[in-house]
């Protein structure tokens, strides 16, 4: 993939032809902004905020996973329709003892998604919700970190009595 890219070395500062702006940027990098620098930055700031109705389409970034989880629960509650929970069913293969299998089951049940390549023990699903892939699964097919999609249909392949 990287063979498709060309390297261009940037040797000239293009966006800083104004001496005042260049000085303000350098002061910003050093953490020593002056009042003059702040006034200059504020003069180039857009104050118009996006319409609230369009904010649900934006990707929201959060500093902590628990903030992400809380936001996702809030958004799912706003979507009309039935919520379905999809719970993982872990199966162990091999010749381990029953004790080893129980320890593995406990270890997995106590895991958090970033320890299991983004896999949750339980995932809430709702038709119409936007979901995002958080790990590269098949980059050639576009199933990669950051890819999003809207859930269109939930079809059960077995009924509750058939589950293991």
TrEMBL record:
<keyword id="KW-0067">ATP-binding</keyword>
<feature type="domain" description="DNA helicase Pif1-like 2B">
    <location>
        <begin position="121"/>
        <end position="150"/>
    </location>
</feature>
<keyword id="KW-0378">Hydrolase</keyword>
<keyword id="KW-0547">Nucleotide-binding</keyword>
<dbReference type="InterPro" id="IPR051055">
    <property type="entry name" value="PIF1_helicase"/>
</dbReference>
<dbReference type="GO" id="GO:0004386">
    <property type="term" value="F:helicase activity"/>
</dbReference>
<protein>
    <submittedName>
        <fullName>ATP-dependent DNA helicase</fullName>
    </submittedName>
</protein>
<dbReference type="Pfam" id="PF21530">
    <property type="entry name" value="Pif1_2B_dom"/>
</dbReference>
<dbReference type="InterPro" id="IPR049163">
    <property type="entry name" value="Pif1-like_2B_dom"/>
</dbReference>
<keyword id="KW-0347">Helicase</keyword>
<dbReference type="InterPro" id="IPR027417">
    <property type="entry name" value="P-loop_NTPase"/>
</dbReference>
